[in-house]
Write a structure and sequence with these properties.
Layout (H helix, E strand, L loop, with lengths): L2 H18 L5 H61 L12 H13 L9 H13 L4 H9 L5 H10 L4 H10 L4 H8 L6 H9 L5 H10 L4 H10 L4 H23 L6 H11 L4 H27 L4 H29 L6 H10 L7 H50 L7 H17 L2 H16 L2 H42 L6 H17 L2 H17 L3 H47 L7 H17 L2 H16 L2 H42 L6 H17 L2 H17 L3 H14 L1 H5 L13 H4 L6 E6 L7 E3 L5 E3 L6 E3 L8 H12 L21 E5 H4 L4 H12 L3 E7 L1 H23 L6 E6 L6 E4 L6 H10 L1 H7 L6 E4 L1 H9 L5 E5 H13 L4 E8 L1 H73 L12 H6 L1 H12 L3 E17 L2 E16 L4 E14 L4 E9 L6 H8 L3 E2 L5
Parallel strand pairs: 4-5, 8-9, 8-10
Antiparallel strand pairs: 1-5, 1-6, 2-3, 7-10, 7-11, 12-13, 12-16, 13-14, 14-15
C-alpha cells in the first residue's frame, strides 16, 4: 500500500469524523486521526510479514523436494551400482528407474529369495552388503557359507577343484595340490610335500609306508609290489619267476583261443594246457588244432610225393612236413601230459614227449613259432592302442558337437550362463580343435568345456531335462515301431492264411520270418531300420494300406475284448468271494454254531445265492456288502474263519517244506554230480537246472518250487538220471523224516535247518546275532570276535516282551558284559526293522506262541544265516541260578532278623518307580555306600530293575517315600534295614532282601580303594601342577626367543623389500588421499568403483558438514598373493583420519583398513578390501588367507 493511499484513507476517515461528530471537540478529532493512521500502517506491516513467511515456506518446500529427488536419485544410483556388481544390471543409461533397473531388481529378488524391494535405506544397504560379498544368488552364498567361504572367487575355484570347504581348499592350495582329490590323497599319504607325493603317484604309490616297503623289497612301482604281496611269494626273485610263468601261460591261452585252427596256435595250446589241464576251452581248441594238423600233414605228405621233381620245392615241403609232424607230436604228448595232470613248462613237456617217442620235435621250429607269436602280440597291442586313441577322438568329437548343440538350444530357450564369457571362450576353443583335427587337443578341450558348462546349475538342469525328454521320445518311438511290426505280422498271418495259392506267398512268408526275427532279437536301431524295410516290401506288393486298415480294425476289436475281459475277471473274482463266504458259512453251521442275528444272515445268504445265479457284477457287489455287514457282527464266525486261514497257512507251510526238501535234494544231487565229473557231457543242462532250483528256493513260493522241481525231474529223466536223483530224494526224505513231520505249536515245520531254534526247552533264552552289514552297532574283527561300536546297541524280543524275571535280567546282564548298555525295558521286534537290529532275544516258549507269519520271519532269517546264534542260555540253568539267589536272600533275611549282620545292603520292592532311596548313614561314611552302589550296579540289576536315580533321607522319610511308590530299591545300614523290613512286613508291602551285602570285609576293601584313589589323585594333581608350571616357564622362555627371532626376521624382510613396499604405499596413498583433502576433499570415480564403501563414507561426512583435519597412512603389510594362478603384489594400509565439525563445534577421528592386489602385468588394481580397524568380522584375515598371502613386511 502506497503513501498516497494511506493519506487518502486518513482524509476519508477525517471527513467522516467531521460529519458525524458535530459535538466532538477539536482535540478529540486529532487524536482519532492519528490512531487511524497508526492502525493502517500496522496492518500493512503484518501483511508484508505474511507474504515473506509464505515465500520462505515455498522456498523450503522446493528445497525439500529437490533434496528428496536428489536422495531418490542417489538411492537409485546406489541400487544400480549394487545390481551391476552382482551382474544383474548393465545399462549405460536407464533413467531413475528404467526397464534395466526393474529387470535387475527382479533378477536380484529371484536370485536371493526376497519378497520385494523398495528404494529404502534398509533395502539398499542389504543389496550393497550382498553385492560386497560377491555371490550371485542365495543358493550360491549359502553353499559358500556352509563351506566357510567368504569370497566368491575362492568358492568357485574350490568347487571346480572338488573341495568341500574353505579349510580344505586353503590347505590344498597352501601345499600346492591341483585339486581336492589330489590333496586328500596327499593328506593321507604320509609324504612331506606334494612333489614327493606326485613322484610316488607316478609310480602308483599312494602312501609313504607302502613305497618304503616296496623299495625295501626291491620294487619300484606299486602295481608290481601289490601283486607281489598278494602272491605270497617269499622274495622278489621267486615272485618275478612265478609271474613270468603265469603270464606266459595266460598269453599262451589267449594265443591258443585267438588263433584256433592254425598251426601257430599248437605250441600255445600245448603250453596253456600244461599250465591248466582242466581248462575246457583250451582243450577243445587244442583238439580242433590237432584235427587241422592231421589234415595238413596228410596234404603236405601228398604234396611231397608230387613235388619230387623240383628239389627246392621238395626241400621246402619236407621242412613243412617236419614242422607239421612236430606240431602233431607236440599235440599228442601234451594231451597225454595234461591227462596225467603234469604241471611243467615247455622243457618238461619236451622231456615227456621224448619218452612218448616224439623224437622229431625241433628246438629251432619251436623258437621260430615263439618269435612269430611275440611279433604278432606286439602288432596286436599297437593296433589296440591306435584303435583306443581313435575311438577316444571320435567320442570326443561327437560329444563336442552335442555340447555345442545343447548350448545353442539353451541360449535359444532364453537361458544365460553365469560365466557367459568363459563359456564363449571354451566353445570357441572347441570349434578350433574340431577344425584342426587334432585328436589329443580335441579330447582335452572337450573335457574342459564339459566341466565348465556342468558347473552352471541352470544349464545342467536344462541338459538333464532335455535328455529325459529325448529318452522318453526315443522309447515311445521304439515302442510304436514294435507295435507297427506286430501289426504287420498279424496282417501277414491273416493274409497268407486266406491266400495260400497266391504266387507271392513264398515271398510273404520270408517277410513274415524277417518280422519275427526283428521282434525277437532286434534292438532299437534294428527295429527302426527293419520297419522301414518291411514297409518297403509291403508297399512293393501293394499291401501296406491293407495292413494298416487291418490293424486298425484289429485294435478296435482288441480294445473291446479287453474291456469285456476285465469285466469278466472282476465278476469272476466277486463270484469266487461269494462262493467262498457261503462255504465258510456251511462249515461254521455244520459244527453246531449259530448266529444271534439269524434274520439278517438269512437275508444276506439269499442275496448271495441270487447274485451268484445271475452272475451280474453289480448285484454280486451289493450282496457281498450286505453279507459282510451281517457276518461281521458275529465274532465267533470271524474267529472261525481266522482258524481256517491258520490251518490253510499250516497246510501251505507243510507243503512248502516237503517241496523244498525235494528241490534241495535234487539240487545237492546236481552239485555232487558236477563235482565228481566237471567234464560231464550234460554240463550245460545241469548248470541250467542248478540255477533254476536256486532261484526257486530263494523265492520261497510253493507254486514256483513245485513247478521247478517237476521240470527238473523231467529233464533229469531225459538225461538218463531219473533213478539216481529219485534215490537221492528218497535218501534225503529218510534222513529228515522226523524233522519233516514235526511242527511247532503255531504251525511252522521243524526242519534240519531250524530245529535248534524251534526244538528244545521252552524256558531257554536264545540270542541271535545280525551277521549282515546292516547291523547298526555290532561287527566281527579279524579274530572273529564280537565288537560293539560307539552307537547304542539295538536289541529287541522276537515276541511280546516277557514279564521281568531274574532269568531275563541275568541274560540282559550277560549281553551288557559284551559292552552293550541295555535296560530292562526291551521292546518287541518290528517286522519291518528286524534287519536294522543288532541282537534278537528269543524265549523259546514265548516265541512259539507268536502267529506263524511273525515267527516265520525269524525262522527264515536264521535259515539263511542272516542271523546266527550268539549264545543259548539254558532255562534250567537260569532257574537254578534264580533259586540260589532266593536262598541267599532268605538266609540274609534270617541273619538280619537275628541281628547277625553288620554293614549295609539293599531291599527290593515289588512296586514303585525305578530309583534308589538311601537311608542316611549313622555309623558308616556315606561315600562307602555310594561307591558300593556304583560298583555293584550291574550285579544289583540282576535281582531287580534299577536306574541311577538316588534319593536320600532318614529312615522315616525313606519309608514314607517308598510307600508313595517313588523308589523300588532301598539302601540302608543293618539297623535301619531291620526296622524297614519289619515295617513293610506289618503293612503287607511285598519286599525282598537283595542277596548283595557289604560286610566288614567289603567295607574295608572299599575304604582302601577310596584311600588309594585319593592318594593317586593327589599325586596326579601335584604332578600336573608341576608340569603346568614347568610348561609355563618353558613356554615363556620360548616366547621370548621366538619374539626375538621374529623381530630379526622381520627387520631382514623390511630391509630387503623396503623400496618395493614404500613404492606400493606411495601408490595407494596417492590413489585415495584426495578423499581426505583438508581443503577440497573429493572421491574420484575410479576410487569409488574400487572402494564403494569409502565413497559412501566421505559422502556421509560431507552431508553432515564434517571437515578433514589430517590423514595418516601406515603400512600394515606388504607381500605376494595369488590371483588365478598368478602371483602379484598385495598391500594393506591403515588410515587414521581426524575430522572436525564447525557447526557442532566437535572434533573426532576414525580408522579404516584398505588394500588391494597390484596386477603389474595388466596395470590393474584387483580384489580390494575395506574394513574398520577393529575388523570385528575378521574380513582382513579371510582376505589374506583366501589369497594365499605371503608377507614381505611382517614376520609371524
Amino acid at each position: 500500500m502506497t503513501k498516497n493511499s494511506i493519506l487518502a484513507g486518513c482524509l476519508s476517515a477525517l471527513l467522516s469524523c467531521s460529519l458525524s461528530a458535530h459535538s466532538v471537540a477539536a482535540q478529540d478529532v486529532g487524536d482519532l486521526v492519528l490512531g487511524l493512521i497508526g492502525s493502517a500502517i500496522q496492518a500493512e506491516r503484518q501483511n508484508q510479514a505474511r507474504q515473506q513467511a509464505n515465500q520462505r515456506a515455498n522456498q523450503r518446500a522446493n528445497q525439500a523436494r529437490r533434496q528428496q529427488a536428489n536422495a531418490r536419485a542417489a538411492m537409485v544410483r546406489r541400487t544400480q551400482t549394487g545390481l551391476k556388481a552382482l551382474g544383474f544390471y548393465n545399462m549405460a543409461i536407464d533413467g531413475a528407474s528404467g526397464p534395466g533397473t526393474r529387470n535387475g531388481i527382479r533378477a536380484y529378488l529371484q536370485a536371493f529369495n526376497l519378497a520385494n524391494f523398495e528404494f529404502t535405506t534398509s533395502d539398499i544397504e542389504l543389496l550393497e552388503s550382498i553385492a560386497a560379498s560377491g555371490f550371485r544368488s542365495a543358493n550360491e552364498r549359502n553353499q559358500a557359507l556352509r563351506g566357510g567361504f567368504n569370497a566368491r572367487e575362492d568358492f568357485i575355484a574350490a568347487r571346480a577343484a572338488g573341495y568341500a570347504n574353505f579349510r580344505e581348499f586353503t590347505n590344498g592350495r597352501n601345499v600346492g595340490a591341483r585339486n581336492a582329490a589330489e590333496y586328500r590323497q596327499f593328506e593321507n599319504s604320509g609324504f612331506a610335500s606334494i612333489p614327493l607325493f606326485r613322484g610316488a603317484s607316478r609310480r602308483g604309490f599312494t602312501s609313504l609306508i607302502e613305497m618304503q616297503q616296496a623299495e625295501t623289497a626291491g620294487f619300484q612301482n606299486a602295481s608290481d609290489y601289490r601283486e607281489f604281496v598278494q602272491s605270497g611269494a617269499p622274495d622278489q626273485a621267486t615272485f618275478l619267476a612265478d609271474r613270468d610263468r603265469i603270464r606266459a601261460a595266460q598269453e599262451a591261452r589267449r594265443t591258443c583261443i585267438a588263433l584256433r585252427q592254425t598251426e601257430t596256435s599248437n605250441l600255445a595250446c600245448a603250453e596253456a594246457l600244461t599250465a591248466n589241464p582242466n581248462d575246457k576251452e583250451v582243450r577243445t581248441a587244442y583238439q580242433d588244432v590237432a584235427q587241422e594238423l592231421e589234415l595238413a600233414l596228410r596234404r603236405a605228405r601228398a604234396n611231397l610225393s608230387d613235388a619230387e621233381e623240383n628239389s627246392q620245392q621238395a626241400i621246402n615241403t619236407a621242412v613243412r612236413i617236419n614242422t607239421l609232424t612236430a606240431h602233431e607230436a607236440l599235440q599228442k604228448c601234451t594231451l597225454a601230459a595234461a591227462d596225467a595232470d603234469l604241471q611243467s613248462d615247455i622243457r618238461a613237456i619236451q622231456t615227456n614227449c621224448t619218452l612218448a617217442d616224439a623224437d622229431n620235435l625241433r628246438p629251432d621250429i619251436l623258437a621260430l613259432i615263439a618269435v612269430q607269436l611275440e611279433e604278432l602280440r606286439k602288432e596286436q597291442v599297437q593296433e589296440a592302442e591306435q584303435e583306443k586313441s581313435r575311438l577316444a577322438a571320435v567320442q570326443a568329437k561327437e560329444g563336442a558337437l552335442g555340447l555345442m548343440e545343447r548350448v545353442a538350444q539353451y541360449n535359444a530357450s532364453g537361458g544365460q550362463f553365469v560365466e557367459a564369457l568363459d563359456v564363449a571362450r571354451a566353445i570357441s576353443r572347441l570349434q578350433s580343435a574340431i577344425a584342426d583335427d587334432d585328436p589329443e587337443q580335441l579330447v582335452r578341450t572337450f573335457d574342459a568345456a564339459r566341466i565348465l558348462t556342468n558347473l552352471d546349475v541352470s544349464f545342467a538342469t536344462f541338459v538333464d531335462r532335455a535328455k529325459r525328454t529325448e529318452l522318453e521320445a526315443r522309447a515311445a518311438a521304439v515302442e510304436n515301431t514294435r507295435r507297427e511290426l506286430q501289426r504287420y505280422s498279424a496282417f501277414l498271418r491273416s493274409h497268407i492264411s486266406a491266400n495260400m495259392l497266391n504266387a507271392n506267398t513264398s515271398d510273404l512268408l520270408e517277410i513274415l520270418e524277417d518280422i519275427e526275427d526283428i521282434l525277437a532279437t532286434g534292438g532299437p536301431e534294428t527295429l527302426v531300420i527293419g520297419r522301414s524295410d518291411i514297409e518297403n516290401s509291403l508297399r512293393r506288393y501293394q499291401l501296406l494300406r491293407l495292413a494298416e486298415a487291418f490293424e486298425l480294425e484289429r485294435e478296435e476289436q482288441e480294445a473291446s475284448l479287453a474291456q469285456i475281459g476285465a469285466e469278466g475277471i472282476a465278476a469272476d473274482e466277486a463270484r469266487a468271494r461269494a462262493e467262498g463266504l457261503l462255504e465258510d458259512l456251511r462249515a461254521f453251521i455244520d459244527v453246531g454254531n449259530t448266529f444271534q442275528n439269524g434274520m439278517e444272515v438269512a437275508r444276506a445268504v439269499q442275496a448271495l445265492m441270487s447274485a451268484i445265479q445271475s452272475g451280474d457284477q453289480d448285484e454280486l457287489g451289493r450282496a457281498l456288502t450286505i453279507a459282510n455287514k451281517a457276518f461281521g457282527d458275529n465274532s465267533d464266525f470271524g474267529a472261525f474263519r481266522s482258524d481256517r486261514d491258520q490251518l490253510n497257512n499250516e497246510t501251505r507251510n507243510n507243503a512248502l517244506a516237503v517241496a523244498r526238501a525235494r528241490a534241495e535234494a535234487t539240487n545237492e544231487f546236481i552239485i555232487a554230480t558236477l563235482a565228481r565229473n566237471p567234464l560231464d557231457p550234460n554240463l550245460p543242462s545241469l548248470l541250467e537246472l542248478n540255477e533254476d532250483l536256486e532261484t526257486a528256493l530263494a523265492s520261497d513260493d510253493l507254486q514256483q518250487v513245485s513247478a521247478t522241481q517237476q521240470h527238473s525231474e523231467n529233464i533229469l529223466d531225459e538225461l538218463g538220471l531219473s533213478s539216481e536223483v529219485q534215490a537221492a530224494i528218497r535218501g534225503a526224505e529218510l534222513a529228515n523224516a522226523i524233522q519233516d513231520v514235526a511242527q511247532t505249536d503255531n504251525g511252522l515245520a521243524i526242519t534240519a535247518r531250524n530245529q535248534v531254534l524251534f526244538d528244545g526247552p521252552e524256558d531257554d533264552i536264545i540270542i541271535l546275532e545280525n551277521r549282515t552289514n546292516s547291523a547298526p552297532s555290532i561287527s566281527r574283527n579279524l579274530r572273529d570276535e564280537l565288537t560293539l561300536g560307539d552307537g547304542a546297541t539295538v536289541v529287541c524280543w522276537g515276541h511280546h516282551p516277557p514279564k521281568g524275571s531274574t532269568a531275563t535280567r541275568i541274560v540282559i546282564n550277560e549281553v551288557n558284559s559284551f559292552g552293550a548298555q541295555l535296560s530292562s525295558e526291551i521292546p518287541r521286534c518290528g517286522m519291518d526293522a528286524v534287519l536294522n537290529t543288532d541282537l534278537i532275544l528269543l524265549r523259546r516258549g514265548e516265541f512259539l506262541k507268536e502267529p506263524a507269519n511273525y515267527a516265520s520271519l525269524f525262522s527264515d532269517l536264521f535259515e539263511t544265516e542272516t542271523f546266527t546264534i550268539l549264545e543259548t542260555y539254558s532255562g534250567k540253568s537260569l532257574s537254578d541260578q534264580a533259586t540260589k539267589f532266593d536262598q541267599a536272600s532268605d538266609y540274609l533275611t534270617l541273619q538280619l532278623q537275628n541281628q547277625l549282620l553288620i554293614g549295609f545292603g539293599y531291599l527290593a520292592l515289588a512296586e514303585g518307580q525305578l530309583g534308589t532311596c538311601v537311608v542316611e548313614a549313622t555309623s558308616i561314611d556315606a561315600r562307602l555306600m555310594s561307591t558300593h552302589l556304583s560298583d555293584q550296579m550291574s550285579e544289583l540289576q540282576i535281582h531287580t530293575p534299577m536306574i541311577g536315580t538316588v534319593l536320600s533321607g532318614d529312615a522315616d522319610w525313606v519309608y514314607a517315600t517308598a510307600q508313595s511308590g517313588l523308589c523300588n530299591v532301598i539302601q540302608a545300614e543293618a539297623t535301619a534295614m531291620r526296622d524297614l523290613v519289619g515295617a513293610f512286613a506289618r503293612n503287607g508291602i511285598d519286599h525282598r532282601l537283595v542277596p548283595v551285602w557289604a560286610d566288614e570285609t567289603e567295607i574295608t576293601r572299599i575304604e582302601a580303594s577310596i584311600a588309594n584313589q585319593e592318594a593317586n589323585q593327589a599325586t596326579k594333581l601335584a604332578a600336573l601342577t608341576q608340569q603346568i608350571e614347568a610348561n609355563a616357564a618353558q613356554q615363556a622362555a620360548q616366547d621370548v626367543l621366538a619374539e626375538r627371532e621374529r623381530l630379526e626376521a622381520q627387520a631382514k624382510l623390511r630391509k630387503t623389500y623396503a623400496q618395493e613396499a614404500r613404492a606400493a604405499l606411495n601408490e595407494i596413498q596417492g590413489f585415495v588421499s584426495s578423499s581426505f583433502d583438508t581443503e577440497n576433499p573429493s572421491t574420484p570415480g575410479n576410487v569409488r568403483v574400487l572402494f564403494p564403501e569409502l565413497g559412501e563414507l566421505t559422502d556421509k561426512l560431507a552431508h553432515e558438514l564434517w571437515e578433514f583435519e589430517r590423514s595418516d597412512f601406515d603400512l600394515l603389510d606388504y607381500g605376494l598373493s595369488s590371483w588365478r594362478e598368478r602371483r602379484m603384489e598385495a598391500i594393506l594400509v591403515q588410515i587414521n583420519v581426524g575430522i572436525q565439525n564447525r557447526t557442532r563445534g566437535e572434533r573426532s577421528s576414525f580408522c579404516i583398513l584398505i588394500g588391494y592386489l597390484i596386477d603389474a602385468e595388466f596395470g590393474v588394481r584387483r580384489d580390494p578390501i575395506f574394513a574398520d580397524c577393529g575388523d570385528p568380522l575378521g574380513q582382513v584375515q579371510g582376505w589374506l588367507t583366501g589369497r594365499n598371502f605371503e608377507s614381505r613386511w611382517v614376520s609371524e
